[in-house]
Structures are given as C-alpha cells and as structure tokens.
Specification:
Layout (H helix, E strand, L loop, with lengths): L2 H11 L6 H8 L16 H14 L9 H14 L2 H29 L3 E3 L16 H7 E3 L6
Antiparallel strand pairs: 1-2
Helix pairs in contact: 3-4, 3-5
C-alpha cells in the first residue's frame, strides 16, 4: 500500500475534530477560517505585528529600554495603524494567496506525471533480458507526492 493510499484511508475514517469555539461561533451565524500552519504570509495580522516590532526596535523610538517604555511604543504604533495599513496588508495576503493558487495548479499537473521505476533495468540490458510482470512493476514504482498546503 502506498503512503498516499494510506493517507486517503486515514482521512476517510478519521473522526472530525470539533472545537467548542466553532459551536459558539456557529450558533451566532458565523464560521471560523483556520489558516494553514507555518504560513504567516497568509495572515495579515503578522504583517501588522511586523510593523509594530520594527517600530519598537528602532533606536530613535526606544530610548528607555524598559518594559513600560516598550509597552508605550507598542500602544503608540497600534494607534497609528489605520484602515489604510490594514487594507494594504490584506491586499498583500490576497496576492500571496493567488500566487499559491496559481502554483498549485502547476504542481498538480506536474505531480500527476511523476513516476519513478526503482526496479528498472540498467541501460546496458535489453528489454528481453529483464522482463517483469505487471505486479512486479507495480511493486517497484514509487509515486512522489506533493501535498498542497
């Protein structure tokens, strides 16, 4: 059995994870959009947080080097971030999403054509010298899978 087949079986029979927060939000007529792990580039708040950290890190702003001073700088920068900055960050994330979607179709097309025969013959051998049954060939084929994120 291939890993991809095993993964399909796991997905088919694994019970869905239900979170209390999902139920609370659903009862209010909303839903939660979960972002993929390890992709801060798909989360606009990460871009905003980066701006805040950059502001606090600048020597011209941070002269006290105390927690109280840092908190004050964070509050100052947060108050300066408005709808325009949020819109820019959200548009940037949408552009990144579109790039991923564009690449995904290319990867899917490529993925469907990747098969490596690990039990194949050397280039010196002829087809007649090394013939295998269909079952043997199937056992020797490795499918390389790219799992979309």
């Amino acid at each position: 059995m291939f890993k991809s087949e095993l993964f399909e079986l796991i997905q088919k029979y694994k019970p869905p994870t239900i979170f209390c927060l999902d139920e609370i939000v659903k009862n209010q007529g909303h839903s939660i959009l979960r972002l993929p792990p390890y992709h801060p580039d798909l989360n606009a708040i990460e871009l905003i947080w980066s701006q805040i950290k950059g502001y606090v890190a600048q020597a011209q702003h941070n002269t006290e080097f105390t927690m109280k001073g840092v908190l004050s700088l964070v509050e100052r920068k947060v108050s300066q971030i408005g709808a325009v900055e949020w819109k820019k960050c959200c548009e940037h994330v949408i552009n990144i999403e579109n790039q991923y979607l564009e690449r995904e179709s290319i990867i899917d097309d490529f993925h469907d054509n990747i098969i490596i025969n690990v039990g194949g013959s050397d280039s010196d051998e002829s087809e007649d010298e090394h013939s295998t049954t269909d079952e043997e060939q199937e056992e020797n084929i490795v499918h390389l899978g790219i799992v979309p994120l």
